[in-house]
């Protein structure tokens, strides 16, 4: 009809891929009793200290709009935290923005820095949303493969060869989702040197920083000469079990942040009031309420790794961070998607096919430890039984 024929969705938006993750969710619909080794949403409550402050905040009876860029006291406290924990110096007025999760940060940063056709380097397998956001923002993702044999550490020569006149940025997470690895200072220095030599922007996602089970690497934005070309994205979702409260932040150079803040205003107006009460509390939360949680995920991940790595024919890089392992399951002779669907149907275990994270991950699965421990154990038992019966 006349009116609807005016609706011509922009090609960049039409080109956002649907994603294997959504196919798995579709396949699980209506099935009871599945063991979930797929979800990246931890099944743990918000720490008691934070909950108390949320309740007190809500009891005031008000839920106003706040400062568009985040409550000044939250930005100030976060700026102090970033300096103390990450060596990142961020002016709370000019260089720091509170966002609706890292997810908003990804979009507004990419939307602001990418010009049509700009190439964005993504060491891959990669978090699918980097790809989706680059496409949505008119950019061109350029995947640079990571090899299991080298522990999914980037080959800097390969990364450099992928750089062209059109390369604007490189984006990655550290610790890495989906790979579970943590790139060391040396690797980050290598990436930083490339970025400086080729005048690239670095967009780094450090949402899993607290879930580092090896030596803590620096923030790439804190390395010499990197502040002016790095956007550091971080958040409260995972570190404080606040996934649904949608709190994240972006740190970046002041001039660019001025425009990015303007775009943020268009998209969300201001961050959620209750989310910010929780984020303020999170930064004051006693470590005794947090450390055991972080340790629990590390223990579960090690348990999952040991069991999966022991399955004949399966290989797996030892996890160093995040909630994930990324085993090579090509010995089953199926595509990642076929295997993930078979596991749902035949074993009652939900996993994510590696191909959710790009074509270089064919033959792999991503397994997570976010479900309750008993469910993770059940998932492991079902997976190993399936493997025994299959073999
Ligand atoms: N970045 C990575 C690497 C993630 O794994 C996730 C969620 O799983 C996000 C960002 C989303 O973060 P937020 O909840 O802060 O939007």
Describe the protein.
This protein has 391 residues and is an alpha/beta fold. 40% of the residues lie in helices and 13% in strands. The protein is built from 13 helices and 12 strands. The strands form 3 sheets. Strands 2-8-7-6-5-3-4 form a 7-stranded mixed sheet, sandwiched between helices. Strands 9-12-11 form a 3-stranded antiparallel sheet. Strand 3 (119-124), helix 6 and strand 4 (140-145) form a beta-alpha-beta unit. Helix 3 (48-59) packs antiparallel against helix 10 (273-284) and helix 4 (72-86) runs parallel beside helix 10 (273-284). The longest helix is centred in the C-terminal third of the chain and has 19 residues, at 291-309. Bound molecules: pyridoxal-5'-phosphate. Residues 40, 101-103, 127, 173, 177, 205, 207, 235, 237, 243, 248 line the site of pyridoxal-5'-phosphate.
The helix count comes to 13
Order of helices and strands: HHEHHEHEHEHEHEEEHHHEHEEEH
- The fraction of residues assigned to DSSP E strands is 5-15%
Q: Name every ligand kind in the structure.
A: pyridoxal-5'-phosphate
The major β-sheet equals:
7 strands, mixed
